[in-house]
């Protein structure tokens, strides 16, 4: 059901915790399944120097948070914004279809953290930030439904 990489990132999550004086913090959640992800980024000269997370959720949510922070460390803001949930799933060597929404949350949490970074910089309007970061007004994940929300 779960790949060895998913089990490893769940059992030994990387980058857990908060970053004091984070450049950006993004929090997303899914009201259907109950997962909540909070991502912290530290940015220096447009490079994500550090990324951490705190996640309340299932093993897949923890694994996707862990691997997503690993992927974006050392990348530019622009490169991090190109990260897709499919890349997160691929890096974990797959997820059950009922757990793909966790990878979507990881992608969205990164985008929200970058949006927060831009807000703190004060150089862009909210409309510009939403467009650059691809933020949606709707927070509910399209992959979740009530039938599979209890699957572990």
Overview of the molecule:
By secondary structure, the chain is an alpha+beta fold. The protein has one domain (4-133): Sufe protein. Chain: A, CATH 3.90.1010.10. The protein has 6 helices and 3 strands; from the N terminus they run H-E-E-E-H-H-H-H-H. It has helices spanning 4-11, 59-72, 77-81, 85-91, 100-121, 126-133; strands spanning 24-29, 36-44, 47-56. A 3-stranded antiparallel β-sheet has the order 1-2-3. Helix 2 crosses helix 5 (100-121) and helix 4 (85-91) crosses helix 5 (100-121). The chain is globular, with a radius of gyration of 15 Å. The model is unreliable at 143-152 (pLDDT under 50).
> From the alpha-carbon coordinates, what is the Rg to the nearest angstrom?
15 Å
Q: In the CATH scheme, what's the topology name?
A: Sufe protein. Chain: A
Based on the structure given, which CATH architecture is correct?
A: Alpha-Beta Complex
Largest sheet: 3 strands, antiparallel
Q: Catalogue the unreliable spans.
A: 143-152
Shape: globular
- Strand pairing plus helix content: what structural class? alpha+beta
What distance separates the N and C termini?
10 Å
Q: For the record, what CATH class applies?
A: Alpha Beta
Instruction: Provide the domain count.
Output: 1
**Count of separate DSSP helical elements:** 6
Strand order of the largest sheet: 1-2-3
Strand content: 15-25%
Q: Helical content, roughly?
A: 40-55%
Q: Give me the strand/helix succession.
A: HEEEHHHHH
Mean pLDDT across all residues, rounded? 90
Q: Total number of β-strand segments?
A: 3
Q: How are the secondary structure elements laid out?
A:
Blueprint: H1 4-11, E1 24-29, E2 36-44, E3 47-56, H2 59-72, H3 77-81, H4 85-91, H5 100-121, H6 126-133
Antiparallel strand pairs: 1-2, 2-3
């Amino acid at each position: 059901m779960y790949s060895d990489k998913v089990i490893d990132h769940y059992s030994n999550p990387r980058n857990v915790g908060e970053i004091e004086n984070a450049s950006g913090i993004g929090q997303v959640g899914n009201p259907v399944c109950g997962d909540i992800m909070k991502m912290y980024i530290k940015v220096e000269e447009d490079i994500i120097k550090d990324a951490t997370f705190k996640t309340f959720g299932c093993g897949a949510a923890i694994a996707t948070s862990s691997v997503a922070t690993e992927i974006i460390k050392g990348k530019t803001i622009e490169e991090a914004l190109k990260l897709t949930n499919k890349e997160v799933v691929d890096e974990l060597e797959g997820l059950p279809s009922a757990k793909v929404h966790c990878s979507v949350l990881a992608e969205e949490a990164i985008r929200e953290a970058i949006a927060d970074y831009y807000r703190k910089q004060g150089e862009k309007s909210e409309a510009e930030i939403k467009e650059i970061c691809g933020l949606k007004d709707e927070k509910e994940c399209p992959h979740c439904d009530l039938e599979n929300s209890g699957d572990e």
